[in-house]
Design a protein that fits this description.
By secondary structure, the chain is of the alpha/beta class. It is built from eleven helices and twelve strands. The protein has two domains: 127 residues, Rossmann fold, CATH 3.40.50; 153 residues, 2-Layer Sandwich (Heat Shock Protein 90), CATH 3.30.565. It starts with 12 loop residues before the first strand and ends in a 10-residue tail after the last helix.
């Protein structure tokens, strides 16, 4: 025993039918009735009427004959596109060649149906509407995602500016307070050393002076990392200084090759290149198990290229793709901010980090902003 037929609250499908034949229009309505698809069909037979209906009423789908007096269904499709509408559009024709059908689909038409297959009309309409709704939902999601990314980028930029300001304040405090206090202590210890005659006191003073000198060196190194004034002498000088310090601390051999002793590079690009070299060498010391590091610095053909290569064990592909590769992600973000890009290639024979920045595309107006980039001694992986 069967129950009563199911009822739905879905509104009828509103269909705009572009057709010059009243007989074919009646066949469309009959096919829709047989399929039990709730629908409202409005007939138009000119481009002007077609345009007016689209402007004054909402339609869920358009059915258009391909051959019409003085124009074609594709002309109607062009009108729809010029109006900026994304209403599903179906070509319904008695005879349409394969070439015309393929061209229509390539131009974005939802579907086409031959009039001798009218029994499939409701299915084609429903499928076109579903695809259109899916595309609209995807477009909305993409727009929301783009807006979210824009807001995240603004937040990241704000955080970077705030962090860098704090770093600058810390560097000043280290220089003014800690550095000044250590210098005063050094003077006092020197005075004590000149006046003390006891050997044990002299030994303790020597040990204290060594520790004090170590603290002074550490404070200077921290200040340099927080805000590298070495960049005022140019990128080549900064990279040479960075390489010398890394070689001294790590014991690895570091060679620096450059196209010239002075590179004409905007300030914001200098900072990005400096941070990239710094991060790359930090990764070498922590993960590479290398014995040598080669740095190539060039501005040939209007492109700044920085390549840091080691002869270590390399990084596997999974390590490069893992979610917490924030060091690599940060380097790529920095490169993108100045119109450049970052490539990382790795094999069992070593890893290469290559930064490329077209110098003509760098914007001097972003110099102050790029100078606010915080430095973190993060790893690639």
């Amino acid at each position: 025993m069967s129950g009563p037929p199911e009822t739905t609250d879905r509104p009828p499908v509103r269909i705009l039918h572009l057709e010059d034949s009243r007989v074919d229009h009646a066949l469309v309505k009959f096919a829709l009735q047989r399929s039990q698809l709730g629908s409202e069909v409005v007939l138009v037979d000119t481009v002007d009427d077609f345009r007016r209906e689209l402007q004054t009423a909402h339609y869920d789908v358009v059915l258009a004959d391909y051959h019409l007096p003085g124009f074609t269904g594709m002309d109607a499709w062009d009108e729809l596109c010029e109006m900026g509408m994304k209403t599903p559009f179906i070509i319904l024709s008695g005879a349409i060649g394969e070439t015309a059908a393929v061209d229509a689909m390539h131009r974005g038409v939802s579907d086409y149906l031959l009039k001798d297959s009218m029994h499939r009309l409701s299915h084609v309409i429903q499928r076109a509407i579903e695809v259109s709704e899916t595309r609209r939902a995807k477009d909305a999601a993409d727009a929301e995602l783009a807006e979210s990314r824009r807001r995240l980028a603004e937040l990241a930029e704000h955080l970077q500016t705030s962090i860098e300001q704090e770093r600058a304040d810390i560097a000043r405090e280290i220089h003014d307070d800690i550095g000044g206090a250590l210098a005063a202590v050094k003077l006092d210890l020197a005075w004590v050393g000149r006046h003390a005659v006891d050997d044990s006191v002299q030994r303790h003073l020597g040990s204290a002076m060594e520790m004090l000198q170590h603290a002074l060196g550490a404070s200077q190194r921290i200040m340099m990392n927080l805000r590298p004034p070495i960049l005022d002498q140019g990128l080549v000088a900064a990279v040479l200084w960075l390489a010398a310090g890394f070689e001294r601390r790590s014991g690895l051999r570091v060679s620096v090759r450059r196209s010239s002793e002075q590179l004409d590079v905007p300030r914001e690009v200098q900072l990005v290149a400096y941070r990239t070299a710094q991060e790359a060498m930090t990764n070498v010391s922590k993960h590479a198990e290398a014995s040598t590091v080669d740095i190539d610095l060039s501005d040939r053909e209007g492109v700044l290229t920085l390549e840091v290569t080691d002869n270590g064990k390399g990084l596997d592909a999974q390590a490069l793709r893992k979610a917490k590769s924030f060091g690599l992600l940060g380097l790529r973000e920095r490169a993108a901010k100045v119109g450049g890009w970052l490539d990382v290639s790795s094999s069992p024979r070593g890893t290469s980090v290559i930064l490329s920045v077209p110098l003509s595309s760098s914007n001097p107006d972003n110099a102050a902003q790029a100078d606010e980039e915080p430095h973190d001694q993060g790893d690639f992986v």
